[in-house]
Amino acid sequence: MATTEDEKPKLIPTKIWKCKNAECKAWVREEFAESEQSCPICKGPMHRSMRHLPAVQNKIKRQPRKPKSEFDI
Q1: CA-CA distance, 68 to 20, in Å (whole number)?
Q2: Whole-number Å distance between alpha carbons of 18 and 39
């Protein structure tokens, strides 16, 4: 089964956090990482790196605003 260019996702350079432990393969996109980054698997230290990954759509569902009533304080 042959694949065409249209089927392959476009890869873009993406900042990631990668585990420093050579035996651990854990990594996480920077946009999904905690502020104090430790490995989610081995709890060891992590460092910044780059990978070519498909783009991710981060859509945040917001609650609709309630209309203000003249009775609200």
Answers
A1: 52
A2: 8
